[in-house]
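Submission sheet (multi-component)
Chains listed below:
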Amino acid sequence: KQEVTQIPAALSVPEGENLVLNCSFTDSAIYNLQWFRQDPGKGLTSLLLIQSSQREQTSGRLNASLDKSSGRSTLYIAASQPGDSATYLCAATSYNQGGKLIFGQGTELSVKP
Amino acid sequence: DTGVSQDPRHKITKRGQNVTFRCDPISEHNRLYWYRQTLGQGPEFLTYFQNEAQLEKSRLLSDRFSAERPKGSFSTLEIQRTEQGDSAMYLCASSPQGAFTEAFFGQGTRLTVV
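Outcome: structure written.
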């Protein structure tokens, strides 16, 4: 059974800092891993999707990496801004879990001006 | 295409009442998922459809919950005899069929049972 963990649960950084969010998964037989952003009281916005054959994906100031052998993914945010403040969630889709996404609990990020 | 649409956005109901939520997926997507999210937690899988077929249901989906997707288009999630523990955000997502496809979520329906 796939389990996804995100540490830390909360992170506060000053504006301009580069930061890394961590995501761990127990079953390395994944289809893909997806990173989402969630603002308070809102739905989820897809940020990046990494397929199992890929090592990383980039979009603007965001870079996500995937290491299946160690069961880890990281989301790197460069030059953080107050507008980046939100909860960041990772979700894995596994071969033996059908097509559904298994989510971590999220990391709540606060970027202070 | 306006993305995944959920209705209503907010619902307040008294304990014991029935509620129904609607989800309209992105038009060309044939997979549709329902998730539930409580405060401070990640979304938990409830059920998913491929076209009109309900392929999997979570153990979280008690007998009071039922979901349908007639004609493989929109979907409804009904909760009968609501309980305070049902208070949560109910999220719908859709994706094209395939193993390497991106899932897109709606804005969710916030249910409060009083």
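Remark: Chain B has a mean pLDDT of 93.
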